[in-house]
Write a structure and sequence with these properties.
By secondary structure, the protein is mainly α. Helix content is 82%, strand content 0%.
């Protein structure tokens, strides 16, 4: 997802270079590249959301075990605790759902890529932070 997001950010520049290349060399299909990036990013967003849902579901739906107590506590901090708004608003809504809607309806791939990358960064930062907030002893 990060690779497709990064390519989505530089896609306008690549399309501009493709237009200049088509003027000098011949016909270059610049829209094929944009369509490939849009589809790759959309598949990455769907996969990212599926992994997040599985992580949350497996943490809460498994039988309570002593080994899983810390993981459950960390997931509760992330989904219901002090990181609630950062996780659901920034990482999920603005980082996955809004970019997926942008890409589905053919809106700006550039802005969808920026939102997806910022959402991925927020999710990874929260994942590390929450893991360190749970006491080990």
């Amino acid at each position: 997802m990060a690779g497709a997001g990064a390519l989505g950010v530089i896609a306008p520049l690549i399309n501009l270079l493709a237009v200049f290349a088509s003027l000098t060399i011949g016909k270059v299909p610049e829209q094929i590249f944009s369509c490939f990036i849009r589809n790759s990013l959309l598949v990455g967003l769907i996969g990212h959301l599926a992994i997040i849902v599985l992580e949350i579901a497996l943490t809460y739906l498994n039988k309570p075990k002593p080994q899983m107590a810390d993981a459950r506590r960390a997931m509760t901090l992330l989904t219901h605790g002090p990181y609630f708004y950062q996780f659901w608003a920034n990482a999920i809504f603005f980082g996955v759902l809004i970019p997926a809607l942008f890409l589905t309806f053919g809106l700006s791939t550039f802005f969808a890529s920026i939102l997806a990358l910022s959402g991925l960064y927020t999710y990874e930062r929260l994942w590390i932070t929450v893991g360190q907030k749970v006491p080990l002893s």
